[in-house]
Amino acid sequence: MKLRLLAPLAAAPLLLTACATDSADPGANPEALTVVTSFYPLQYTAEQVGGDQVSVETLTQPGAEPHDLELTPQQVASITDADLVIYLAGLQPAVDEAIAEAQPAHVLEVGALVERIDGTEESAEHDHAEGEHAEGEHTESEHAEDEHDHGSLDPHIWLDPENMVAISDGVAAALTELQPDGGFDQRADTLDTTMQDLDQRFSEGLAECETRTFITSHAAFAYLAQRYDLEQISIRGISPDEEPSAARIAEVQELAKADNITTIFYETLVSPAVSEAVANDLGLVTDVLDPLEGLTDASRGTDYVSVMDSNLEALRTANRCQ
């Protein structure tokens, strides 16, 4: 499936209701807004846009796999009491349920800020896969919608820097509603420039490559692939917990041979065993392509931008880019 550039981002409404709840103890700044975010990329955005005007709490702790998050009673209480809750619907069912039950006063659902795309792979659309499946035989991707709560929409919207610009602006608008003199628009402009610079590095760095196909542990990179005219082949579907069938592994191996792939990518928060097995069978190397669902001590960077830069270098090496 050849992925192409995104259409312009659609504007989306911000869900804001009633008056703000009382702020929790914000520490140094008694006027700081309390902001609860569901996982790392939203935490990063809230911290960059909010500055010292916000006190940010994230529900997904470092090193935890966000898809499988279970909330403590204290975390549910923090959602109720927060001045603003920022989350991505469909990524973490426990968060969706807690927000529906707690009904916090101000909520920003960032998925409404960007154009969503289908993250499934139809192997029959790939030139090398056409006609390879017998009647009644199915690939892993064909079952993705039924097997995972995300459906067919790829939730990894933050892997396109242009989407991060939209999220940054949405966060600034939400915070400004609560504190008009907080300077959020100016900090969002700074973050937007950082994202635009990152986007330019990716565009230039991936402009001329021997192959535009890359193989990943799970289908987390549809937005990145579409933005930079790449093609993602995933061993697993959208869920990192899926166990790929022997047929899917064999299919990926055939595609790797056909496209002259040298590298099988794995992730910091998911076991590399499957990626390593596929690579070993073909005599290929493995490397990290981080979907940035969270940071760990093993992350190749200390924040969103530095990890994305590491992803760029990994792709440039694997795809033999000039």
From TrEMBL:
Signal peptide extent: 1-20
Record-level Gene Ontology MF annotations: metal ion binding
The organism's place on the tree of life at top rank: Bacteria
One Pfam match: ZnuA
Keywords for the protein's UniProt record, in alphabetical order: Signal, Transport
Positions of the UniProt region annotated as Disordered: 121-155
InterPro entries: Bact_metal-bind_prot9, ZnuA-like
Stated family: Belongs to the bacterial solute-binding protein 9 family.
Protein name: Zinc transport system substrate-binding protein
UniProt organism field: Naumannella halotolerans
